[in-house]
User: What shape does this take?
Amino acid sequence: MTRAGKSAIESAMESLAGRRAAAAAPSAAASPAPEPATEAAAPEPPALHAPDRAPRRAPDDVHEGAPGRPPATPTAPLAAGRPAAAQAPAGPPAPLARMAGSARSPSPAPPSVPVDEQMVTQDGLKLHLRRWPAGPDARGTVQIVHGLGEHIGRYEHLAAALNAAGWHVAGHDQRGHGRSEGPRGAIPHPLALLGDLAMVTDHLHGAGKRILLGHSMGGLVAARFVAETLQAQVARFARDFDALVLSSPALELGLSRGNRLLLSVLGRLAPSLRVSNGLQPQWVCRDPAVVKAYTNDPLVHDRVTPRLVRFMVDNAALVQAVAPRWRVPTLLLWAGEDLCVDPEGSRAFAAAAPAGVLHKRCYRKLYHEIFNEPEQADVLADLTQWLRRF
Assistant: This one.
């Protein structure tokens, strides 16, 4: 989110205010009525994530992980419903041990043939679900929640690594994303994503351990989902998991006080107004091939609404507030050079959560998509080794 300059929300608010002023001004000549606020054309970036500064440089002492473990060194600079019938595929914690060497590609795992399904939400939307099954002796299931504007199909190589480590893998395209139905980047009410996740979790329930893994906005959704079990009055969507993995979670959006005020106003006037999320493709990863694939992916979009941003702001604050009472074993991995979300959110959560349930690591020089960075072999090794305890 921007901290200075004009954001997409500010621009949309000014556009909306201009339309209202034009509609209220007397005119001798008849003029057409303005469009409804919810259909106002949103200007393009400067947008919600437009930077106002150079990439963040973490101080040398920010690297956090196992004692004595040096930071990864980059190489060349470079990214409750009802299920429908399954269909053919569409396409104190122990320290982590470092792999010998760094910045090398992981050994290819035998590909698992993905299985695609559809599920129907309580409000009638079709959600796309993908499974990557492992062998009969799988330890359990890792359930992935993807980030803003993307889809579960971008996690093929992560699923392959987890399959090779003995885990079933599954995840869904969140509503308004990928192959799932719904307006792009929109939610009908604040609990929609959490209710969808509960439905998918129930559908995937099987033998073995259950691990929830969320990236970026999906990391926030996953953390908020787990946080519900800490509430005095638990909501109906609450479900238990054996462990949680957070990858560059959106636990702080970096909104200025002015932008928060604009969000509040625009959220009342036009909560479903879709504007650019402002995310620049080159921010996601230092690998140009990943950036190119992201840019050319027809299932990736850049839309977001005030209601979805409000969900993110409010629930990031809730997760931070309950962090001192956290009790689900959690692996928190984040990028020190993240321009998509504010790394301070991960640092704050890591500082507040009990050390006995949280293992943390900041990859100081990596960009947002840590599983896609040139050093992905190290990140995947950290993940799979931590999962061996379950």
Summary: The chain has a mean pLDDT of 79. The two ends are 36 Å apart (CA to CA). Residues 116-251+278-387 form a domain with the Rossmann fold fold (CATH 3.40.50.1820). The first helix runs from residue 8 to 24.
